[in-house]
Amino acid sequence: MSNNYDIKRNLQQPSSADIAKYQNFDALLEKYKAAAPEGGTVIPMQPREGRGAIVRRMTYLAAAAAVLAGIFFTYNWLQKPTTPALTETEYFAQKPFIHSPLKELQPESVAYKVDATKGGIYKMKTGSKLVVPTEAFMTNRGELIEGEVDLYYREMKDYVDFFVAGIPMVYDSAGVKFNLESSGMVEIYAQKNGERVQLAPGKAIEVELVAEIYMREGAALPNYNVYQLDTTSRNWTYQDIDNIQIVENAEDTYFNNNNPINVLRKEYANTLAAITLAADTRLREIEASVPRPIEPLKPQREAGNTPSIELDFTDNSVIVEDDPNTPENENERLKKGYGDAIWQIAPGTAYDEQRLSKITWETFRLRPLNSQRYELTLQKGNLTEKITVMPVLTGKDYDRAVRNYEKEHADWQAALAAWEAQLKSQKDEVNQKLVADKTAAQQAFEQKLTASGENVQDALMTKKRVLNRFKASSLGVWNCSQLMSAANSVLQSDLEDQTGEKYRQQEVYLVNKYQNTVYRFYAAEDALIRFQEGSDNLLWIVNDQRQIAVLKPADFKKATQADQRKIVLQRLETPIREEKDVRAILSFQ
Description:
Blueprint: H1 16-21, H2 25-34, H3 51-79, H4 88-94, E1 110-115, E2 120-123, E3 129-132, E4 137-138, E5 148-156, H5 159-165, E6 170-173, E7 176-192, E8 195-199, E9 205-216, E10 225-230, E11 235-241, E12 243-249, H6 260-288, E13 308-309, E14 318-320, H7 330-338, E15 342-345, H8 353-358, E16 363-368, E17 374-380, E18 383-392, H9 395-452, H10 456-460, E19 461-472, E20 476-484, E21 489-497, E22 506-512, E23 515-523, E24 527-531, E25 537-542, E26 548-551, H11 553-562, E27 566-571, H12 579-585
Parallel strand pairs: 14-16, 21-27
Antiparallel strand pairs: 1-5, 2-3, 3-9, 4-8, 5-7, 6-7, 7-8, 7-20, 9-19, 10-11, 10-20, 12-19, 13-15, 15-18, 16-17, 17-18, 21-24, 22-23, 22-25, 25-26, 26-27
Helix pairs in contact: 6-9
């Protein structure tokens, strides 16, 4: 016998209107009365005597009870509250602050043996550098550490690094959330005999981090700040301004072929360089037309343990070169500010103490390096030694020089303000012309790109190699970043892969090609995804089997243009064994 069962799974949840429809018992009674024979009445059933009547009556009662029980069960089932889905904020609040679905793929930190008493300079293969000061480490009990310390260092420079490390990129400023666009991130920590140690109070590790950022050709370098990750407050904390500078184009090779688009880019870059050079030259001419007030030298106190040299300016044995940037005679300037000075060897200068002290030098030549330091060249016959020195004062000479300096510095500030006001109108005119010329050059470049059929945004963006400089005053994760405001577009869709597997209660990751950050969202029904329109976006999810389902930029763009209610990601069966596998999957190619 064939059993044609019609079993339905995942039944549709009844609405409030459906429930109310079956709760109107008065209407049900009226319907029952209307069903009576025409002209007749409804006569209540009278019980009959005997066992059969009792059985029938019990049967009726049982049936009625079953109906009422069914109604009661159905009513309670329909009214039973469902467990509400977590909000995005609740979801991330219950997760560890730093978490990654692929944490085992994180590269190991580079380890260095550091003499805790002496410190040292440590250079990376990437070009980055750490400068560890003397007596820099202490135990968690506040005891200064001697001997060797194991210093661990790791760089995170792009969205794949941030994703694999599980580093959150959201910055909460008084309830307003931003994403941090990074120009490079480092993690630094230290151990002594396997136990974590800290930096001593007042000590900081100087960091020079080489990284890469995207910039519009001809645009000014953005302002970046330095933030430290605080895992206790689950937020980034602002620390300082990032001293960032461009080292070189990271894509100079694109100028070295005859591709039409590269020819246009080279032409545009040369035009911008010529415009900037002309403006800089004109500004220098304007500033040279009126002598700039000279900043007075700030007195420096003698440091007790630093070697010093006595220089006599009265017998012409000391030759002082003039500073080409100031009209004042340097020799007279030194006599005025440092006539009674001792010349100490500047900190960080390498020199041979025995060679300096044993040779009787005949001539001395001073060349200014900046407002405080000088290059001293000592000569005797064919022997030459060069060191960096700085003039310092002691005792009452220093106190008197400080009082004079404070008055002279106030006078200099007033004179400088008057000088800048005198030249302001001329310099404003040059800067306005600079902006107008750059705008015209960009418009001409974009017109040529449009005519060639190339993507204007891609052609305008270039990758620059930059050097970030900052001081890490404590150990942990440090991030050189600028704040990114909320994305300008929203996509709301269900997410599934090509097999029909739906993604619920999982993290969604999104990156923009030209913004070095990772956006994280929570995948629920009708997932809400914020993105930057007009640029390439890459979206992915990692399932429980550590497989990545990805939506490439071209498919992402189609989904946003069609306003699809369902987005299909491509789940890749490629095994993920190491970081390079992740990079291959999450490329924009």
